[in-house]
Amino acid sequence: MTTPAAAPDQADPNARLRRLRDAIAARLTALFAGAEAVLAHGPVWIAAVIALLALQVALIATHRPWLDEWQQMQVALQSPDWPTLLVNLRYEGHPPLWYALLRAVTPLFADPMRALPVITLVIAVPVQLTILLAAPLDRGERLMIAASQFVLFEYLTLCRSLTLGFALMILIVALWRHTRLVWLMIALLPQCDFLFGVISLLFGAQLLRERRIDWPMAALWLLSSLIAAWSIRPMPDTVPSLVPRGLGHDFAFWMAHMSALGLPLQWSEGEPLWNYPPPAALGGLGLAGFVAVVWCELRARRAWLYAFAGFVALTLVFSLLVYQLSIRHLMLAAALLIVMVWRMAADSGHARSVWWRTWLLVAMGCGLFTAAINLLHPFDTAPEAAALIRKMGLTDRTWVPFPHSAGQSVAAINTMQFERLAQHCSEDMIRWNAPDDHRIEGIDGLYQRLDRKVAQDGAFYLLTWLPLPDHRPLLRRIAHVGHGYDGQDFYFYAVGEGHAPAHPHGQRCAAPLIPLRRG
């Protein structure tokens, strides 16, 4: 008796999955081919480039600086001289190049904060044109990279030293055959950020493999790296804002934030919020997809794959042992993948997979979604919070932020001084050396610290991003300003009502500093 042959799906349980994968790949391939055919028409491509540039300009022009963007300007402008600036940078962990640029450009403007969008535009427009017109990729790929969350928003709308570092990465791969110029830009990378210093090492190693060493420029790179490392050595009392909280917690934190590389949809509590990972279920799929894309694109060059894996591993070690890297720092791995594929395409006409294009499509969708949010709603609502303090006539009262960075942008906008909760000193520019914020455990611990300050100094006002319940007679909420896309709410509380008003302390937490000039 003959036994019936097993059905193909029964003989190979993965056959159905492979057929489904192949069917999806075929449909996606047809989609990308159709889009490429449309973009092949000159007028369509020109319109797409103009629309993308117009969107980038609109995002930069309407962007409101957030805490870190205010901080960089204050460090650059309130430091009275270079020795003081270098001391302040040791609390920041950033090399001096970006701050030197801010310090040089901002005196040209009546209001120094107006220089920020101008600087961003001067960097962003050439970078976008380089991607759109010079990348050795299909037009659809170039457009998706330029409109991606990574490029359109994280690096070319927000204005930090990461903006300059990303621009240098793009210019390096675009001008790769110009050895001396490339070495010069590689030498500048460590001056942007520690992670860019690591990327500069990868670029230099590739030039070494190609036997293209410009020894004077290589020496300049080494000198720049040493100066950058010396400039960011932390002060003894530095306390980072995101301290390690245990290997298990920090590994989960890193994994969640890494998932934004595959699905850069930043989301929290049912709404889009910047600097938060995507929902867990979607994020897990996004991370798996990103790993698959990296494998598909870099497996042909194992040395590059190992270099990429080493960079990612370094971010994990750094996050576990030193400081929890944020999403925008981890997204440098996405930028590194883009420039690696760029170089492979330029060298050998590397054929990109459909999954690479799918990843870019997802990144573009998230980038356009984020762009729409930020054109319709403000990124940060500190101007409303500062205006509310002025409206209530409380700018000359004693204000305390918790944590101590919560009042950073409000202090800068209103040129106010905020007092620290546990120290008798005031500040507008933040130094990351307030360990008392991290020693307060829970709401009860905060109430105890507030009660202690009332007993010492008298009644004052509290600004925080925490929605604290009223705790009368100690604490009463008097106002609230909702958050923008950055997720920072502003809650205002009267503390110690019934006591005599506290008198501001004259001592500054960080001295000497000059006032921030506002137009």
Notes on the structure:
- The chain is mainly α and 519 residues long.
- The protein is 60% helix and 6% strand.
- It has helices at residues 8-11, 15-39, 42-62, 67-78, 82-92, 97-105, 115-134, 139-146, 149-155, 161-174, 179-188, 194-209, 215-231, 247-262, 280-298, 302-321, 327-330, 332-348, 354-376, 382-391, 408-414, 436-439, 442-457, and strands spanning 267-268, 271-272, 399-402, 418-419, 426-427, 460-464, 475-481, 490-495.
- Strands 3-6-8-7 form a four-stranded mixed sheet. The chain has a two-stranded antiparallel ribbon with strand order 1-2.
- The N and C termini lie far apart (95 Å).
- The model has no long low-confidence stretch (mean pLDDT 93).
Report the uncertain regions.
none
Oligomer: single chain
Strand content: 5-15%
The value of Rg in angstroms is 25 Å
How many domain modules? 2
What is the β-strand count?
8
What's the story with the biggest beta sheet?
A: 4 strands, mixed
Helix proportion of residues, in percent? 55-70%
Q: Globular, elongated, flat, extended or rod-shaped: what is the shape? A: globular
Distance between the amino and carboxyl termini: 95 Å
Instruction: Give the strand line-up of the largest sheet.
Output: 3-6-8-7
Q: Mean pLDDT, as a whole number?
A: 93
Q: Number of helical segments? A: 23
- Name the structural class: mainly alpha
Quick overview of this protein structure:
This protein is 60% helix and 6% strand. By secondary structure, it is mostly helical.
What topology emerges from the helices and strands here?
Blueprint: H1 8-11, H2 15-39, H3 42-62, H4 67-78, H5 82-92, H6 97-105, H7 115-134, H8 139-146, H9 149-155, H10 161-174, H11 179-188, H12 194-209, H13 215-231, H14 247-262, E1 267-268, E2 271-272, H15 280-298, H16 302-321, H17 327-330, H18 332-348, H19 354-376, H20 382-391, E3 399-402, H21 408-414, E4 418-419, E5 426-427, H22 436-439, H23 442-457, E6 460-464, E7 475-481, E8 490-495
Parallel strand pairs: 3-6
Antiparallel strand pairs: 1-2, 4-5, 6-8, 7-8
